[in-house]
Amino acid sequence: MMVMGEMWSQVGSVIASLMFAYAMFQQYFPYDLRRYLSKYSNKILGFVYPYIQISFHEYSGERFKRSEVYEAIQNYLSANSSSRAKRLKAHDIKDSKSLVLSLDDNEEVNDEFQGVKLWWTSYKSVPKNNSFSLYPNSDEKRYYRLTFHRRHREFIVESYLNHVVKEGKGIAFKNRQRKLYTNGSSDSWYGGKRTKWSHVLFEHPASFDTLAMDPKKKQEIINDLLKFKKGKEYYAKIGKAWKRGYLLYGPPGTGKSTMISAMANFLDYDVYDLELTAVKDNTELRKLLIDTSNKSIIVIEDIDCSLDLTGQRKKKEKEEDKEQGKDPLKKAEEEDMNKSKVTLSGLLNFIDGIWSACGGERLIVFTTNYVDKLDPALIRRGRMDKHIELSYCSFEAFKVLAKNYLDVEWHDLFTTIERLLGETDITPADVAENLMPKSDDEDADVCLKNLVEAIEKAKEDAIRKKAEEEEKLKAEEEAKLKAEEEEKKKVEKQNLEKERESEGNSGKEDVKCNGTLDKEVKVNGSVTT
Fold first, then answer.
1. Are residues 283 and 168 part of one domain?
2. Other C-beta atoms lying within 10 Å of the C-beta of residue 59
């Protein structure tokens, strides 16, 4: 026991002596000498130490910009190696769905990739000066150190590190909270925030399971979206930007906005709701496009109402101003500051021009109630690749709504509703409103009866409206015929008056001619006498 105690005391003395010598070395030896000694000692150590170390600092380059590689490594280790660590730290990271666990300071974990074993260690360095700082945490520098055998150097640099960064970014994307963005006036782009897009959390619950439309058409859209999401290599092979355009058209209340939300939830994409009327010109439109992220849906709702892209509305306004006695030039000067100058050409370049290739994995979605009003160049294939008509509620769509709202798959009134839906145009929004219970006393029977009454009323209103339109058309046709008849009579009357006037002038000329002849006879008579 005495021998063991003496041995430990000697070891302690040696360690203490070494620590004292190291402290003296750090304190009194010049920096240049310490640097050279450290340099050559590392070289000597490299001959006998077979491992290589790579450090990844939290802040590299600009001090206040966090390294994306460091964040990717943190996410990778949090998902793959934190279960083997004994000491962890929990972070409440902004825009993340849950707490993120990472290695605590000076904690080490091992990792294995394709049979190669590696070690990750988390370090924190604290400055040795004793100066007071208002922000002490900002002086701390954290970094990860990767250790591996030198025979695997090429494999680690070319394969493993790329794998770690790719996996880390994928984990961050999966854990993020999705956002709904909107653009504001460009006047706010250059203030303290310097942001072109403002956002809120995207929490719309719509899904393809709850979407009221024909199941075959729904599955066709799902297959198309899946093919696009997996098509990175395919789009690169055919030489096209990794984007796809969707045109959603149909009457109001047919589910165009709900379709966009379902697409975003299905693909796990962010949504950018672009308000064209707030964009001053084509340059600002390009800047907004550049500032959008990958894996997103860019939406322009009611594209036919957003801007005058054909010039017809402008011409009509000028004609109205002329009729009202307004000066078109003066009015143009007054509205010039507030009016958007985005042109059809600028919008086409936004969708399908060179700038559209900045970034990838984007969907561009237009919605409209009146597809016939849009310029054909705007919605041709290659720009709006897939046209989806969202029409009035069919029986198949009704069954989806009945299942969602009432948890009913069959009812005695379904046959009646199927017949009425085949005879009447009613939107899914109107059907859903009637299926939704308004109190605890309303059950499926009451809601379905309410729906039957609503469809029958809509049918009666449609018949009455059609009769009124036919009567109106008939009245307009009769008024048109009457006007044509009056115009015809007026023309005939004018022609008759002209004929009478012509005959009157002809009679006067005959009388004049007869008087002249009488004078000639008298003259001749006097001559003969």
1. no
2. 15
